Structure formats: structure tokens, C-alpha cells
Automatic annotation (TrEMBL):
Pathway: Carbohydrate degradation; Carbohydrate metabolism
Annotated family: Belongs to the hexokinase family.
Residue span(s) of domain Hexokinase N-terminal: 23-197
Name of the molecule in the record: Hexokinase
Species in which this protein is naturally found: Sphaerochaeta associata
Limits of the Hexokinase C-terminal domain: 210-433
Length: 436
């Protein structure tokens, strides 16, 4: 082993960055314990385990149109969706506008007025509305959603605490429309992703369904028996989808992670998300690289070049693993003329991604185990995975599947299959709307 490889390996081990520093058995036990606590009382767990009152439907309404709204990030999308006899979704009359409150603060009336403006052209097409609302919201028994907080991009404080579906219908009624027969199902994007996986035509007999998103942020949803959701006190023999809010899982592997968490806006929140998602992998890698420079793992020449880059993002770090000899890439240029720098940097970034993959696998493995499904290899759990970080970050999906195979399939004898369904939030919202 060369000195470069040996020194880099020692550095990664010292700071708990390598995947081997994660004890999967202990981590799975902790994750499952947090899930149980969240089902008992969400204030006692870092996992909120939010009930959605949404069931996995046994059949899909064919030929019936449903209005679909998708509010996520900075865009608001509307369209009409119809499922054909083969269960394929047909998306029509699609339109996208900016979310209200992006450019300037808006009142509640202005907020819901923007939604109503977009719904008006579709209002006579269906009495059912599926609303994918990708912001933190409590879901009510009547399938409405109450926003709890908006991300910093959306400035609409008056909307917090107001029912999204009811407020939209109220605005439409104010404009003179008859909304007495209109029904709205509000759900978040992870729940919609699960439903899209469940509703997609397939030759596989799945035993369970999981919705998983790993993009800018991360979250997971699965199906739980109502009798296990003790905070609801429901013993009706039914099941419903649980929004885990898995990105908030409280876990800090080491001192460097603690230093990174402390540099973020909310140091005690969303620890898992800050170690695996697209918004954070780049900045976390930047901190690790800076620490490697300070400890002499990377050269002073590299340090000078790297300082000019500032914070690298997830795409930049992924590009280095993808094409480590492409001098057009900023990190490759930082290593020019020094093989040891090039090798050490590759090992560091690869370790950050490998560890993120192991943490991702722990999240998914715990979710599969908690669901009770996947015990028959002929009937795996369907994991509908969405998000550019998962698919486009070099090695992340590959390593995740390795750890899932090792710890979930070989050790726990649970079986799964990844699927990727385009337009999952739209399709899932349509399924939820049609199930009303």
C-alpha cells in the first residue's frame, strides 16, 4: 500500500468518514426504535411517522379523469390525468407557473387565488382533485393538508395552519363555481411516489410498497397497519401510508459530522438528510477536503487551487469520480501534476458517497423490515425511488444496492426491487384523487 493510500485511509478512519465506520446492526436497531417511538408519540422521536389516512388502493379507476395539482419547490403544476385500460397514465393540459410567494410575500388570499387561477380551466373536467403538496404539512382524516412551515423560498406566513384543499375550494366558490361535489386529496411527494409504484402496471407480484426520494432532500414512506399506530388508537383492521420524514433521523457518526451540522441553519435537525442528500453532500465533502488539507493529506498546491473554487456542490464532486482525468472538471484541475493528490481526493469523495449509500441502505432496510413485507423472494417489496441525487451521483445507487443486498437480503432474508417511474408525484396524486 502506497503512503498516499495509507495516509488517506487513516484520515478517513480517524474522522469516521469511511463506510466501515457505520455499524449497520446498531444503526438498523436505532432506526427501527425511532420508528416505533414515532408511531407512539411523534414528539418522542426524531422520526415524525406522520399518518396520511391514505390507503393503498386495490384497484385503479380506469377512464375517469382527475385534476392533479403539484406544488413543489418553486413551481406549481396543473394537469388532467386519466388511466387507460392497461393502467397507463395519460397526462393532458399540463401547465407550470411559479409558486406564489417565491418573489415576494403573499397573503393567504393571494396564495390560494393563484391555485384557483390554474384550476379554473380544468374545473369542469372532474370533481376529484389530487394535490401533491411537497411542503411540511399535517394530513387530516378528511385527506386535507395543513401547512406547518414553508421552506425559505416560499413567503406566505398567513397560509400556515390553514387547510389547503378547503381553502382552494372556498376560493373557487367565491368565484361562483359549484364545489359541493368537489373532493380534494392532499399528500406529499413521497407518499405520491409510493402510490405511483403501487399503481404502475407490473408482472411482479409485490408484497409491499415503499416511496423513496433522494434529491435535494430525502424522505421515505411505507404502509403500516393501523393497529401499530398507537398514537391514533385505530383498531379497524386497516392500513395506511406513513410519511416517515426520514431525513430528520437523529444520527451523528463523528466529530467532523458534528462540526458540519453546527455550520448549518438548524444544527439539531435533519442529520440523515445532511449526510446523504444533494443539497448537503457537496458542502460536507468540502469540509472533509478542507480537513484533509489541514492535516497534510492533500498538498499545499492543491490547497491554493481548491481555495479558489469555494464550496463544491454534489455535481462537482460526482464529476470527479465519473471522469477523474477530464481536465475540464474543476477538481481534476486542482490535482494537475500531483498523482498523490488525485488518488487521495478520489478516495475522500468516494468514501463520502459510500457512507451516504450505507446510510441510505439503512433507511430503506429498516423501512422494509418495519413494513413486514418482502419475506418471500418471489414477492419482493417495490421501492419506487425518485430523485436526481440517487440516480446521477456517481456510485451512490450502486453502493446502496450493495449494502441492501448484504444487510437486508443476505442477513435479514428480505427481498426488494427498485423501480423508477416517470412523473411519480403526478401519477401518485392522481391515484389519491381517484380513490376519494
Amino acid at each position: 500500500m502506497s503512503d498516499c493510500v495509507q495516509n488517506t485511509t487513516a484520515f478517513l478512519s480517524k474522522w469516521g468518514i469511511e463506510a466501515a465506520s457505520i455499524d449497520m446492526k446498531s444503526l438498523l436497531a436505532t432506526f427501527l426504535s425511532e420508528m416505533e417511538k414515532g408511531l407512539e408519540n411523534e414528539s418522542g422521536s426524531s422520526l415524525k411517522m406522520i399518518p396520511t389516512y391514505t390507503e393503498v388502493v386495490s384497484g385503479l379507476a380506469k377512464g375517469e379523469p382527475v385534476i392533479v395539482l403539484d406544488a413543489g419547490g418553486t413551481n406549481f403544476r396543473t394537469c388532467l390525468v386519466t388511466f387507460d385500460e392497461q393502467g397507463l397514465a395519460h397526462i393532458e393540459d399540463f401547465r407550470k407557473v411559479s409558486m406564489p410567494g417565491v418573489k415576494e410575500e403573499v397573503t393567504a388570499q393571494q396564495f390560494f387565488s393563484t391555485f384557483a387561477d390554474e384550476v379554473e380551466r380544468l374545473i369542469d373536467k372532474s370533481d376529484k382533485i389530487g394535490f401533491c403538496f411537497s411542503y411540511a404539512a399535517a394530513i387530516t382524516e378528511d385527506h386535507d393538508g395543513i401547512p406547518l412551515v414553508f421552506s425559505k423560498e416560499i413567503k406566505a406566513p398567513e397560509v400556515i395552519g390553514k387547510k389547503v384543499g378547503a381553502s382552494l375550494l372556498s376560493e373557487l366558490a367565491r368565484r361562483g363555481y359549484d364545489v359541493s361535489k368537489k373532493k380534494v386529496a392532499v399528500l406529499n411527494d413521497t407518499v405520491a411516489t409510493l402510490l405511483a409504484g403501487q399503481g404502475a402496471p407490473s408482472d411482479t407480484d409485490y408484497s409491499g410498497y415503499i416511496g423513496f426520494i433522494l434529491g435535494t432532500g430525502t424522505n421515505t414512506a411505507y404502509v403500516e397497519r393501523n393497529s401499530n399506530i398507537s398514537k391514533l388508537g385505530l383498531f379497524d383492521g386497516k392500513s395506511q401510508i406513513i410519511n416517515i420524514e426520514s431525513g430528520n433521523f437523529d444520527f451523528c457518526p463523528g466529530r467532523l459530522d458534528r462540526e458540519y451540522f453546527d455550520s448549518t441553519k438548524h444544527p439539531e435537525q435533519y442529520h440523515l438528510e445532511k449526510m446523504i442528500s444533494g443539497a448537503y453532500l457537496g458542502p460536507l465533502s468540502t469540509l472533509v477536503i478542507q480537513k484533509a488539507i489541514a492535516e497534510g493529506v492533500l498538498s499545499s498546491t492543491f490547497a491554493k487551487r481548491f481555495a479558489q473554487l469555494g464550496t463544491v456542490n454534489t455535481t462537482v464532486m460526482s464529476n470527479y469520480l465519473e471522469m477523474p482525468f477530464n481536465s475540464n472538471y474543476a477538481l481534476v484541475a486542482c490535482c494537475e501534476g500531483n498523482e498523490d493528490d488525485a488518488i487521495a481526493l478520489w478516495m475522500i469523495i468516494d468514501a463520502v458517497i459510500a457512507r451516504a449509500a450505507k446510510l441510505t441502505a439503512a433507511n430503506l432496510a429498516a423501512t422494509v423490515i418495519k413494513s413486514g413485507a418482502g419475506t418471500d423472494p418471489r414477492k419482493p417489496v417495490c421501492i419506487n425511488a425518485d430523485g436526481t441525487t440517487f440516480y446521477k451521483t456517481e456510485y451512490l445507487k450502486k453502493y446502496t444496492e450493495y449494502y441492501l443486498h448484504t444487510y437486508l437480503q443476505l442477513e435479514h432474508k428480505r427481498y426488494y426491487r427498485f423501480v423508477r417511474i416517470d412523473d411519480s408525484p403526478t401519477i401518485g396524486a392522481a391515484i389519491a384523487g381517484l380513490s376519494l
